[in-house]
Amino acid sequence: MKRILTLSAALLLALATQASAQCYADYKAKQDNPLRLQYGLIELPASACGSIDAATAYAAPVIAGSGWTLLQIESFLTEAQFNARRADAGAIHLRR
């Protein structure tokens, strides 16, 4: 019985950690007049990590708040990939 409780607690902890985990994506955006293109990185909440559509729905208004129009989410990134690219992205290209 004690073993079952221990396994159950470990499973619940793993699921809670996974559910609260965030993910990251890279994106392309634009501004008009004059045309400017941007490659950027965005940190997404767990609710936006399930699909490109969910990530787009979250990211578009965040990016629009800075005067850019989201063109597309390029890909999802691991935390290690995000951190490696973050140094090169600069503050203007990093959305949280």
Our estimate of the beta-strand percent is 25-35%
Strand-and-helix sequence, N→C?
A: HEEHEHE
Low-confidence stretches: 2-20
Walk across the major sheet and give the strand order.
3-1-2-4
- Average of pLDDT: 79
Shape: globular
Can you put this structure into words, describing what you see?
This protein is an alpha+beta fold and 96 residues long. The protein has three helices and four strands. It has helices at 2-20, 52-64, 79-89; strands at residues 23-31, 36-44, 69-77, 94-95. Strands 3-1-2-4 form a four-stranded mixed beta sheet. The longest helix has 19 residues, at 2-20. Mean pLDDT is 79; it is low at 2-20.
How would you sum up this structure in a few lines?
The chain is α+β, with helices and mostly antiparallel strands and 96 residues long. It is built from 3 helices and 4 strands. It has helices at 2-20, 52-64, 79-89; strands spanning 23-31, 36-44, 69-77, 94-95.
Secondary structure elements and their pairing?
Layout: H1 2-20, E1 23-31, E2 36-44, H2 52-64, E3 69-77, H3 79-89, E4 94-95
Parallel strand pairs: 2-4
Antiparallel strand pairs: 1-2, 1-3
Key features?
single chain, 96 residues, alpha+beta, four-stranded mixed β-sheet, 45% helix, disordered N terminus
